[in-house]
Amino acid sequence: MVDEASRLCVAFLKEGDDVSRMIKIFNVLVICLSWALIWPMGQGEAARLKDIASLKGVRVNQLVGYGLVVGLNGTGDGSGTKFTVQSLVNMMERLGIHTLADEVKVSNVAAVMVTADLPPFARVGSKLDVLVSSVGDAKSLQGGTLLLTPLKGADNRVYAMAQGPLIVGGFSSSGKAGGGVQKNHPTVGRIPGGATVEREIPFHFDQMRNLMVSLNEPDFTTALRVSEAINRQLGSPVAYAADAGTVKVKVPDAYATNIVGLVARLEQLQIQPDSKAKIILDERTGTVVMGENVRISSVAIAHGNLSVQIKEKKEVSQPTPFSQGQTVVTDTSEVNVTEEGKKLILMPEGATLGEVVRALNAIGVTPRDLIAVFQAIKAAGALHAELEIL
Question: 237 and 314: one domain?
């Protein structure tokens, strides 16, 4: 397409006198400059820095807690679930009601684990979504209400409190005689905005003087490209790649009081990420995913299927009349072997991903057969890619 455009431009410029050609040259230069501004090189393959990396310290923290769900319609934990009974007795004691464990029935109560993610920069009073999961033998959490549950972090400190009615995306119905219908998972529910942040994680982002950019997929080439792009954007050598997964950025003096503005500017940088040539094979589902940098050396591939079909049947042997013989049942086996015609294909050295796929499709290779084919090519030393089997 570029060659055709060049040919048309040359033909266009040859027409007319000297003055008109000069005007045409100027117009062509303006058009080319406009295309260069609105269509940057590699835009289709580049990614924003915020999509391939994150800042050290700006992360999500997991919270977990143990609580009780009440109000279930006989679908709670059974009487044999001792920790549910003990939890209910302890809760009643804290409320000033003394009772014995033998007197408590928990068919309308379920013990649950409550989990939530504490996002970065969450402040006191912020709302969090919580996930509630049964830990006993409850049949369903539908219609239940989570009682006040403290959510703790890895340091065993309480950071949020959760409470509220559950939203369950499934149901379970059964009769006394057995059987029933179940859809999705009725023992797991959510409470949108069901937790309130009570303690903040201390983090003074506005006082940072050095930023640590962590790549989601560590790669030396990508780290170098990120540091070069940051230095070009800021106009000074303030960034360097510390290793394959970390780029250190010194905050310029101009952004000492505007760290947010600096990060927002860096997040929009277009980076061309690099990665190893890799092939992902999932033997359970027959899924094969290949990267664009996969290359193979010269290799010949033969593909053929052997189909063996065995049929077992019984035949009855009847004696002739008045022969004093007995009726006998005999087993017979019929074996059919069918072998498809093998096809041999030669792949040249340095074949690209598209050539490999077209060649393998031409010999009728299915996704499950591809797994065996690539394993054989790797064993032969002709596959220049990392083979990962899930």
Answer: no
Domain count of the chain? 4
User: Are 81 and 66 contained in the same domain?
Assistant: yes
CA dist 86 and 93 (Å) reads: 11
Determine how many CB atoms are found less than 10 A away from the CB of residue 195: 28
**Angle of helix 259-267 versus helix 220-234 axis, rounded to 10:** 120
Q: Are residues 143 and 241 in the same domain?
A: no
pLDDT in tens, 31-41: 544 444 444 44
Single-letter code of the amino acid located at 312: E
Tell me whether residue 55 is in a domain.
no
CA distances from 188 to 104, 131, 142, 170 (A): 24, 7, 9, 8
* Mean pLDDT calculated for residue range 52-60: 88
Q: Which two tokens stand for residue 233?
A: 């954007």
272-319 tens-digit pLDDT: 888 888 888 887 777 778 777 777 777 666 655 544 444 556 676 777
Quote helix, strand, coil % in the chain, to nearest 5: 25, 35, 35
Segment 236-273, tens digit of pLDDT: 999 999 999 999 999 998 888 889 999 999 999 999 88
Domain containing 154: what range? Answer: 61-168+185-197
Which whole number is the average pLDDT over 157-171? 89
Contact 235, 254 (CB under 8 A): no
Residue 287: count other Cβ atoms within 10 Å of its Cβ: 14
Answer whether residue 54 is part of any domain: no
Contact 260, 266 (CB under 8 A): no
Dist. CA 189–CA 134, nearest whole Å: 9
Check whether residue 370 and residue 385 sit in a common domain: yes
Looking up residue 225, the CATH number of its domain turns out to be 3.30.1360
Written as six digits, the tokens of 77 are 């934990």
Average pLDDT over residues 115-128: 93
Measured distance CA(371)–CA(249) in Å, rounded: 43
What is the DSSP track for 12-41? HHHSS-HHHHHHHHHHHHHHHHHHHHHS-T
CA–CA separation, 222 and 343 (whole Å): 41
